Amino acid sequence: MSSSTKASRIGEELWKTRVDKVNAELVTLTYGTIVAQLCQDYDGNYQEVNKQLEKMGYNIGMRLIEDFLAKSNVGRCANFRETADMIAKVGFRIFLNIAPTVTNWTSDNNQFSLVFDENPLADFVELPDDGRAQDELWFSNILCGVLRGALEMVQMQIEAHFVSDVLRGDDTTEMRVSLVRYIEDEMPPEEE
Amino acid sequence: MSYYFTILSPTDVPLFNIAFGTSKSGGDGIARFRFPDTAQYMNQFIIHSSLDMVEEAQWMNGNMYLKHIDTYPPASAYISAFLTPSGARFLLLHQPPQLPSTAASASGTSGSILGGSFSASALGGGSSRASASSVAANPTSPQTEEAVRQFMGEVYENYVKTVMSPFYRQGMEIRSSVFRSRVTAAGRKWL
């Protein structure tokens, strides 16, 4: 069985049995309000808003990984491909009940794309029509931060960013994830 | 039939408006009002003047769709209203195409106000004459009421989605092009 179908099965199973659910609109509206408020607070400086969202996500991810591992009880992934399937089919399933498609691997297996068919964070959303938001704001940028924070806690330094978003009028919503390096456990400095 | 649809906030601020024509019976979806293009504000006058009737009718029963509530005979404009629970009002003005036989008498009654407006509308009336015989041409028929109700329902659904957008603030003008195209689509489907 490929790791992808195995991961989807785990994800489905966990979603049915172990996950507390909340109303989707609660999540959507809360997140939407946060982004709208940030846009207001930073006075339409969308680069800064992206950065803040990423930072918030990073802090969420660092805690969320613990919850993820406790719930899913999965072991260490053998390689980055398996990690990608775990993220897409188990992680996203548990927390958002979606399963983005993993695709566009580079030949060195260090970079992939997550393509989101649906995105509960962005329901009802229409970006402000100020002529800049469409080009500058990554509405769901918090997800990039979540992945970075979560993977950092399991010894993977990654970089994640959105490359397209249906909110901007693109055909798909796609996030690019690249592995920077595995963080080696470092010995504490010798005490002499 | 020509339509003018507008959404007013609970405090009577216009949030959205659109004019369109019928797409039934071979209509091309283009509005042809009986006013010349320079007097399109007449639609707004007529529709806003029905607000008193809306306010009178809104507490009479619990329905959101208030049906046909007002008529402005000089321009044979009929107004249907729909209220959302939060107090926004959807108003639809519909005006049947000018029949050649009534054109003369109508211009006799209101020609003094509207001047030469009927030469323009007579052109429009000619091309949409086919729809005059259909049920939709009779603004008070049950079929029309039903079609307007369906239209209002669909617009309401899309209105809710639009105001749920986090970047929309209560009482703001609705500029969403998605919403506009959905209203147009609803108009094409039902009216």
UniProtKB/TrEMBL annotation, chain A:
Instruction: Write the record's keywords in alphabetical order, separated by commas.
Output: Endoplasmic reticulum, ER-Golgi transport, Golgi apparatus, Transport
Which branch of life, at top level? Eukaryota
> What Pfam families does the record tag this protein with?
TRAPP (PF04051)
Q: Which GO terms describe its cellular component?
A: endoplasmic reticulum; Golgi apparatus; TRAPP complex
Chief localization: endoplasmic reticulum
Where does the record say this protein resides?
Answer: Endoplasmic reticulum; Golgi apparatus, cis-Golgi network
List GO BP terms, alphabetically.
Golgi vesicle transport; macroautophagy
Keyword Transferase among record annotations: no
InterPro entries cross-referenced by the UniProt entry:
Bet3 (IPR016721), NO_sig/Golgi_transp_ligand-bd (IPR024096), TRAPP_component (IPR007194)
Keyword Signal, does the record have it?
no
Family per record? Belongs to the TRAPP small subunits family. BET3 subfamily.
This chain belongs to which protein, by name? Trafficking protein particle complex subunit BET3
UniProtKB/TrEMBL annotation, chain B:
GO terms in the biological process aspect are:
endoplasmic reticulum to Golgi vesicle-mediated transport
Q: Coiled coil where? A: none
- The domain of life is Eukaryota
Q: Which CDD domains match?
A: TRAPPC2_sedlin
Family annotation (InterPro entries): Longin-like_dom_sf, Sedlin
Q: Quote the cellular component terms of the Gene Ontology held in the record.
A: cytoplasm
Q: Which PANTHER family match?
A: TRAFFICKING PROTEIN PARTICLE COMPLEX SUBUNIT 2 (PTHR12403)
Instruction: Identify this protein by name.
Output: Putative trafficking protein particle complex subunit 2/Sedlin
Which species does the entry assign this protein to?
Aspergillus homomorphus (strain CBS 101889)
**Taxonomic lineage per UniProt?**
Eukaryota, Fungi, Dikarya, Ascomycota, Pezizomycotina
